[in-house]
Amino acid sequence: MSRMLFVNLPVADLPASMAFYAALGFENNPQFTDETAACMVWSEAIYVMLLTHEKWRTFTDRPIPPSHSSEVMLALSHESRDIVDAVNEAAARHGGSADINPRQDLGFMYSRSLADPDGHVWEMMWMDMSAMENS
């Protein structure tokens, strides 16, 4: 079996969260989706499991952090700066918050941070790997 990453996130409104992630380019896998959870696919190796608060509590007794806190920032790479911008703008149009941190432009790397409707923090980034190879 190949290595895969499953990011599990508690969400207050499962349909709204599914729509948000679909707007950012994730695809739903109905095989692992029901009224308590949704599997949103980023790539062949990266999956985001959106879990209702009730479903989340079947996995852990730890409290769900308030939406204005940060427990982790997850970064996803994109093929261009324009796509980073488009995804960040889509987040703002679909219930998330765009540019929650200052955008970073280092020339060879560009990133913008957003939060989903539940406050989970994502960094959308692009990196010119050829510029890295020459340094």
Automatic annotation (TrEMBL):
InterPro entries: Glyas_Bleomycin-R_OHBP_Dase, Glyoxy/Ble-like_N, VOC_core
Positions of the VOC domain: 3-127
Keyword Signal belongs to the record: yes
Signal peptide: 1-22
Keywords recorded for this protein, A-Z: Signal
Record's keyword annotation contains Signal: yes
PANTHER family in UniProt: BLR2408 PROTEIN, BLR2520 PROTEIN
Record's protein name: VOC domain-containing protein
